[in-house]
Specification:
The structure holds three protein chains of three kinds. Chain A is α/β, with parallel strands linked by helices. Helix content of chain A is 36%, strand content 25%. In chain A, helix 6 packs across helix 8 and helix 8 packs parallel to helix 9. Chain C is 76% helix and 1% strand. Classes of the chains: A alpha/beta, B mainly alpha, C mainly alpha.
Chain lengths: 269, 289, 342
């Protein structure tokens, strides 16, 4: 309690100065709209390379919209944004969205493998549909990515079965494999484990831990334990605003804001 | 008190009786509706089967008074007409339906959607007249092509609306999954969305085709009729339905009998069409909707 | 990353990514994308392609009306409104008045509806409210099968089964029972208005019943439960549902009317084809569609042909008005339940 009192009296800047290493994506004064409703309010944040950034906050706080703004999926749902998102010195709004999304992969809340495709074709859907057809290379990629996604042993005998025939947890790992197969640099995950059972969730979390060696990962979750387990940094969103962005350990032991403290101790949300 | 409870009792019985009567009436309506179906199938099969033989499928019609003969040209003619109609109507219907579901969330889309509904209510004979002015008049003679155009116009509303409805059933998450992989939208629409919705769309196409195969009115003055063997789409062509009409209205007993056989063959043809279509479109994987 | 270690595969993949990067970079700079905005060219092409077809369908309907108008200009100029008010249709003296056909079309359709509406809505009630689900599916399928039978087969059945039955059994019976009724005068031919009405009623029944069933089903279950909870019997619940669905059911009936008015072959084969106005149901009549079907290929003069095409235009306009009206009714009822947050 003493700490909280202390923190409250200090005026803390939104972004606590931290050594983030190399910054992969820099979000500057981002606001996102649905029609006239402002769902993200002037958020600025730097996303470090090859680290896991968790975004937490109560439902409807704009976590998903923030994520979908980064790979321009927000416009698919007829949303608009103002402000800037810079990836590797390039403004995402100036990059062809199709190319941008190959660079920034995304995993969704509900597993969504293509039901008309086999497991094999699901993994390489992004490559095949873009004209990469070297059969031998595709085979190798399927094996490698499925191994990376910790799914190979479970599905190696059923590569020709429909992707929809797998269990929920397997489907989600298949979706992760599908995302890795197009060789992105960033992976966005929108509550990837919220529709899964505890064992599958544990597998996905392990997988995230492995993946961060090669990829920059941004994960949205409403599960604070999960954020604490998998992430290096955590950002807390509330009502469309970025309340606090901090080192995960600090965030969960000594948050600098009263609102964050209230949220992670379960006093609201 | 006595009166009150009597009224209550009375109204209770009345309500119960009304319930039973009305429910029985609706059951009766269902039975009466099915009666003609049974009648028509019974007569078509029992009367049609008498002249159903190999000749019917291999020989041309004989002149009046000469018994025997078949309607091979009519069977082939119907198939050609339906093929022309499908060749034009299926792509137009699928693309229009795709437009309506993927891009048509605007005023123009609403207008097109409404007009296709209206088009589906336009009588087939009127469509025949339009095909006449559109194809027969400039070409200066009747042709299979004109008949095919008429059938295509009749198919378009069915195929368009089924395509639209079926594409709408494909969950948004599949489109998002594709977009997030950096696949262009048109490829997602063609290779994921249409592929997932394909079975439903195929049912719509099948419905359109089988209705077209049963059409007579729009063929009367477009494809006309042909007593001889012809597969030239720029010449008049025979069809089973027009044969049924002329043979049924003619004052010759053996023609009347052959009309029944033609009707039976037409029904078999339509059923076969649906069977073949179902086999072709049987998808490798189960779709999840 | 493991993939990168595989030299061969890796090289191909890298090649591919480089190319796609270049493609994306190049497409940004082209003249076309400058005009069309920062979008994928394939997407724009695909959208325009589908738009083209939608425009085609849009124009088709406008064009149909125009085409018939321009090909009936001779008779429109010559007869004016007299075309639909005159009762004489005489190709020999080149006088064309369509009133008997308009009369025959409307009367046969209305008679058909009088038979079909109670049956059709009865079936719909049975399917939507009463039938157990194991019975509902096959029954719906069978009624839809009824809609799939080609019209010419109905006509065939009409000529050889229905007409003889009417001529030998029903019509003499009606004349015996109601000897003085204006409805049953004249010789019992079998072919005539009554036969047409019966055939039409069978043909529009599936339309009315399937659309009505969909409309009844679109009324949310919460409405039914509310009524049951008040102690209503099944029929009383159904009455409430029917009152909710009124305008939609009216729409279904009018769609049936549209179908009956345009129906050609079956009617042509049983109505007797005589251009006259008679109050007797046993007398032959004529409909617009039947006349077009019968006389189109025989039209020897330009004026004759123009008159037939004008008749098609009249039929087109009538059915379009009917359809617009009916669609609006059906659409507004179904929409009511979709939008309200019950």
């Amino acid at each position: 309690m003493e700490i909280i009192e202390q923190v409250k009296t200090e005026s803390v800047p939104k972004n606590i100065p931290m050594d983030l290493g190399h910054v992969k994506i820099s979000v500057q004064d981002l606001s996102a709209f649905f029609g006239k409703t402002k769902v993200i309010k002037n958020v600025s944040i730097d996303i470090p390379e090859k680290k896991v950034l968790a975004i937490i906050g109560p439902s409807g706080c704009g976590k998903s919209t923030f994520l979908r703004s980064i790979n321009r999926m927000h416009e698919v749902a007829r949303g608009t944004i103002t402000g800037k998102i810079i990836i590797d010195d390039e403004d995402v709004m100036k990059i062809d969205p199709v190319y941008l999304r190959r660079k920034i992969g995304m995993v969704f809340q509900k597993p969504n493998p293509f039901p008309t495709m086999s497991v094999f074709n699901n993994v390489v859907a992004g490559l095949k549909l873009n004209g990469f057809r070297n059969r031998k290379a595709l085979k190798e990629i399927v094996e490698k990515t499925l191994k990376q996604a910790a799914l190979w042993d479970e599905v190696k005998d059923m590569l020709n079965k429909s992707g929809a025939a797998l269990s929920g947890g397997q489907q989600q790992r298949l979706c992760i494999a599908r995302t890795i197969a197009v060789n992105p640099e960033v992976i966005l995950m929108d509550e990837p484990a919220s529709a899964l059972d505890p064992i599958s969730t544990a597998k996905i979390e392990e997988l995230i831990f492995e993946l961060k060696k090669d990829y920059t990962i941004v994960i949205v979750t409403h599960n604070m334990q999960q954020a604490a387990r998998v992430s290096d940094y955590t950002a807390f969103f509330y009502m469309g605003e970025l309340v606090e962005f901090n080192d995960t350990k600090k965030m969960f032991t000594a948050p600098s804001k009263k609102q964050t403290e209230d949220y992670i101790t379960g006093r609201f949300g | 008190m006595e009166i009150k409870s009597n009224i209550k009792k009375f109204s209770f019985y009345r309500r119960k009786t009304a319930n039973v009567i009305m429910l029985s009436l609706s059951l009766l309506a269902a039975l009466v509706t099915l009666a003609p179906l049974i009648f028509i199938f019974y007569y078509t099969i029992s009367k049609g089967i008498a002249h159903l033989n190999v000749d019917f499928f291999t020989k041309l019609p004989t002149p009046v008074g000469e018994p025997g003969g078949g309607m091979v040209n009519g069977i082939v003619g119907t198939l050609i007409l339906v093929a022309i109609g499908g060749g034009i109507g299926i792509p137009v219907g699928i693309f229009t339906g795709t437009y309506l579901s993927e891009f048509g969330h605007n005023k123009f889309g609403a207008v097109v959607r409404f007009l296709t509904d209206v088009l589906s209510g336009v009588p087939s004979i009127v469509v025949g007249v339009v095909a006449y002015t559109l194809v027969v008049v400039p070409m200066k003679h009747f042709s299979a092509l004109a008949g095919g155009v008429a059938l295509a116009i009749l198919m378009i509303p069915t195929i368009t609306r089924t395509t639209e409805e079926m594409i709408k059933l494909v969950p948004q998450s599949f489109r998002e999954a594709g977009l997030a992989l950096g696949i262009p939208k048109w490829k997602i629409t063609l290779m994921v969305v249409l592929k997932t919705a394909w079975k439903g769309i195929a049912t719509g196409i099948l419905l359109g085709l089988s209705r077209a195969a049963g059409e007579t009115a729009p063929l009367l003055f477009t494809a006309l009729d042909n007593r001889f063997w012809s597969t030239n789409i720029f010449q008049p062509i025979a069809s089973l339905t027009v044969y049924i009409y002329t043979y049924a209205s003619a004052p010759y007993k053996d023609w009347n009998d052959q009309a029944w056989t033609a009707a039976l063959v037409l029904i078999i043809l339509i059923s076969l069409l649906s069977l073949i279509f179902r086999i072709i479109t049987r998808s490798k994987y189960k779709t999840t909707n | 990353m493991e993939i990168v270690k595989e030299s061969d595969t890796h090289k191909k993949l890298q090649d591919y990514f480089r190319k796609s990067r270049e493609k994306a970079g190049a497409s940004r700079k082209t003249f076309l994308t400058k005009i069309l905005g920062n979008n994928n060219l394939g997407d724009i092409f695909f959208e325009r392609l589908t738009l083209l077809f939608a425009v085609l369908v849009f124009l088709l309907i406008i064009f149909m009306g125009w085409e018939m108008y321009s090909h009936s200009i001779l008779s429109i100029r010559k007869f004016g409104w007299g075309f639909i008010t005159s009762t004489t249709w005489d190709p020999y003296s080149q006088v064309f008045g369509a009133l008997p056909m308009i009369y025959g079309t409307l009367v046969s359709s209305f008679l058909g509806l009088i038979i079909a509406v109670p049956l059709g809505i009865g079936v719909a009630i049975f399917l939507a409210e009463l039938a157990p689900s194991w019975l509902e599916k096959p029954l719906s399928f069978l009624t839809e099968l009824l809609a799939g039978i080609p019209s010419v087969i109905y006509g065939l059945w009409g000529i050889f089964v229905l007409v003889p039955w009417l001529r030998d059994t029903v019509e003499p019976f009606l004349q015996n029972e109601f000897p003085n009724s204006f409805l049953f005068q004249g010789a019992p031919y079998g072919f005539g208005m009554l036969a047409a009405a019966i055939i039409l009623s069978i043909m529009v029944l599936p339309i009315i019943s399937s659309i009505s069933r969909d409309i009844l089903k679109s009324v949310p279950n919460s409405q039914r439960e509310a009524a049951y909870a008040l102690g209503a019997t099944k029929w009383e619940v159904t009455k409430i549902i029917l009152s909710y669905a009124k305008s939609g059911l009216l729409g279904a009936v009018i769609l049936g009317l549209g179908r009956a008015i345009g129906e050609t072959m079956a009617v042509t084969m049983v109505i007797g084809n005589r251009p006259q106005i008679s109050t007797s149901l046993l007398d032959p009549g004529y409909t617009m569609a039947s006349l077009i079907a019968n006389e189109f290929t025989e039209a020897a003069s330009e004026l004759y042909l123009n008159s037939l095409i004008e008749l098609a235009l009249v039929l087109f306009v009538i059915t379009i008005i009917i359809n617009i009206f009916a669609r609006l009714l059906v659409w507004s009822t179904e929409r009511k339940w979709k939008l309200s947050p019950i």
